[in-house]
Design a protein that fits this description.
Low-confidence stretches: none
Strand content: under 5%
Order of helices and strands: HHHH
Helix content: 55-70%
Oligomer: single chain
Number of helices: 4
């Protein structure tokens, strides 16, 4: 076969994109059929899986982290102070 025949048979993406009818994917067809009989309920955008009340206060977490940082700074300062020169 000649090289020109291969070029003519090559799939042209622009031709495919310009097609007047595009078939939906299998997943889209499946969801459309499922939702026709049982439509999904409203879902909030980025819903929180658990309420914030069960996780504790963010102020407690902040105090614990800052307390740990202060303890490490004091420990390093004490170790540097006690180190022989």
């Amino acid at each position: 076969m000649s090289g020109q025949a291969d070029e003519e048979r090559e799939f042209d993406l622009r031709w495919a994109d310009d097609a007047p009818h595009k078939e939906p994917s299998a997943r889209a067809r499946m969801l459309a059929a499922r939702w026709k009989e049982n439509p999904p309920g409203p879902v909030p955008f980025r819903a929180d899986p658990e309420p914030a009340r069960g996780r504790g206060s963010s102020w407690v977490s902040t105090a614990v982290v800052l307390g740990c940082v202060a303890a490490v700074i004091l420990l390093l300062g004490y170790a540097n102070f006690r180190a022989p020169y």
